[in-house]
Write a structure and sequence with these properties.
outer membrane lipoprotein receptor (LolB), chain A, 7 strands, Lipoprotein
Amino acid sequence: MKNKIYLFIFIGSLVISCSNDDDLNYKNEFEKSHKAWLDFKEHHADSYRYTVVDNSWVGFSWETIITVVDGQVTQRHFKYTSPDDLNDIPEEEIEWIENGSKVGSHKNQAAEPLTMDQVYTKAEKEWLIKRKNAKTYFETGKNGLISSCGYVVNGCMDDCFIGIHVKNIEFLSF
């Protein structure tokens, strides 16, 4: 009888301590894309440029180009790309470039100055986590790299996507 109790406790502790592989939406697709990213990074000396695009329901759209050299973000270039009237936006905010230690100094709709390693970490730890109250999205481009990753909380009506839309990723040649 005593052995059965210990066996029951042991099995119960195993069940409780086991992590659940089902905590991540698109797990297989994410892992395949992450491997494609690691291969890309290795073949291009961790130096690349990628473009993040976004828009608002009111008609504005914008893009942010992030440049990474040897694994460090060295430049962030933001530009409104919408054909809509931009007269209400100060000229210095319509387009700007940050370099070196100034990267990250502007606070607006621009994409965060993240490396793709950081993008993949955010995807795994934040954007792809299963939620009962949200719809999750994950897409890759022809190269297998992330093109869209994030979620929308159920019932949200305007500008609800939390995540990233990557238009392209290109390696830098020196």
